[in-house]
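Recall the central idea of this unit: under ordinary conditions, the amino acid sequence of a chain determines the structure it adopts. In this exercise we apply that idea directly, starting from the sequence alone.
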Amino acid sequence: MRRHLRAAALAAAALLLLSACATRVDLPSKDAGLRLRVQSSVIAPGNGGELIAADALQPGDILLTSIATINSFGIRLGTFSPVSHAVLYLGDGLIAEAVGSGVRARPLADVVDEEQMVVAFRVPGLDASGAQKLRAWANSQVGIRYNTTGVLLNAPFVLNRRLCELPLVPSAVSHYCISGMAMVQLGASRDDQFFCSQFVLEAYRRAGLPITDADPRWVSPADLLHMREGDVPSIAATQPLRYVGHLKYNPPPLLAADGP
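Accordingly, the structure predicted from this sequence is:
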């Protein structure tokens, strides 16, 4: 029996080392003992989630999506995540997003129709004034070019930084490692053009409610997913995002299972 337990423990440790998921150790409390938390990508209706209608959204909600394209699959594979794109909900059935053709605004219904999965998160503390600032800035950026250089630099950064996320690495050490690596690898990226998650984070920064203290150029859609309540973020959030629900859930078969 002990041999089987030891083998199971070694197998679990090997999986953590290979995946290099972000981890967090919760110290013992009066209600629970020592606990190791591991970053998770699982969230789905029937598994801690629910399907919602568009009228459940509020201006400023962040939509994370995936679509059945080679580019989307590559992003999800590279970031070990079920999402590949981030969208900002403006209200009145409209969204803003940064795509290959640049920043654009379009109907939410088009996003739900095209994507395989659309999941919504909410930033706590966003009031009507903040939402108005966010919308105004997002609309003023329509037509701004896509940050192609930022995306190309971000891809190797996402992979290389997993060395900073080895199991049981203290949060302070991991943060220092990721920050140093980002400054070296992403320093040439522009901050006046945007890729999808960079655009969402910049909108919140301009509204006076930054989601993270990290540079928006460091953050991928997968990072936003892990900034939700109950998960372990690779890049710290100022406060966890609240899950609102799925507007659509139809994940590709290869990505339906859990992964870091």
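The chain has one domain: 2-255.
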